[in-house]
Amino acid sequence: MGNAMQRFENKTVVVTGGNKGIGLAIAQRFSDEGANVVLASVEEQVMEAAKSLPRAIGVVCDVTDKAAVVALYDKAQAAFGAVDISVQNAGIITIAKVEDLTESEWDATMAVNTKGAFLCCQEAIRRMRRNGGGRLINLASGQARDGFIYTPHYAASKFGVMGMTQSLAKEVALDNITVNAICPGIIKTDMWDYNDRVWGKMLGDYGPGELMTSWVEGVPMKRAGEGKDVAGLIAFLASADADYITGQTINVDGGLIMS
Ligand code: NDP
Q1: Which residue numbers delimit the Ketoreductase domain (predicted)?
Q2: Shortest CA distance to 234 belongs to which of 45, 35, 3?
Q3: How far is CA 252 from CA 63, 139, 153, 225, 249, in A?
Q4: Residue ranges per domain, the chain?
């Protein structure tokens, strides 16, 4: 990207789930545009991911643990002074028929996808209010717009993210903080591989890649998304061009869901 766009110079962004997939693509995009980047995820691998970017640190943080989330933002502030943008990207999915879905699967999904996003928003807002403003972007999912089969817990967790986004957006609207959510469609990551394997087995006799390929046929643009497609929207929402946008949930899915 060179110096063409340096919208985030002197800005600091926290990206949870930043060690791979969509999160890493988001971190890369902010880094390309000049930001200091704080990557957080459960695995130690996040430290290696951070080394691949300039002005970046990695923090091992389970977003379901409030003390760990507070420590994450403390470390971000200690390294770079302030947090200007926080992207709640950490997420998990499992796939199970309704009778087989366990309580612990339900609880874990809610804990990471919904409570984890909330804890990060809470901590970020506390600091952004003191710093005069900020930008929060939460990862929901097309599955919150239009439930997919065998993932009621995931759909509920992401629908929760959308509701939380609207409520927080209203609360902080006068604090120069915007809160928005996005709904990715079918994006090629590890999550895609898991979905292809497990849903493929449950929905029929699909070989590797066949189920996802058939779903991609249903995308008007006839291609799967990539992390960078999602990162572009997030960078826009974090930029000054989006100053008057808050409480919104925007799809990034090649036209898969048009509502
Ligand atoms: P991946 O499975 O590739 O990555 C998930 C990331 O979340 C990993 O970095 C993982 O860290 C992190 N994570 C999981 N649990 C925790 C936790 N408790 N605390 C901190 N970090 C955690 O997923 P994607 O990149 O595909 O998805 C990113 C986001 O986008 C998720 O919220 C997902 O629900 C959403 N999404 C994805 C879609 C897709 O098609 N891929 C579609 C719609 C939404 P670690 O590796 O250390 O465990």
Answers
A1: 11-180
A2: 35
A3: 24, 11, 22, 8, 10
A4: 12-185+226-252, 188-224
Q: Are 60 and 84 in contact (CB under 8 A)?
A: no
- Which atom of ligand 1 lies nearest, measured to the CA of 19? 9
- Report the Cα–Cα distance between both ends of the chain, in Å, rounded: 32
Choose which residue among 43, 145, 186, 189 to substitute to test ligand 1 binding: the one with the highest number of ligand atoms within 8 A of its C-beta: 189
List the structure tokens of 156: 């509920």
pLDDT in tens, 80-130: 999 999 999 999 999 999 999 999 999 999 999 999 999 999 999 999 999
154 catalytic residue (yes or no): yes
Collapsed DSSP state (helix, strand, coil) of residue 224: coil
The CATH fold of domain 12-185+226-252: Rossmann fold (3.40.50)
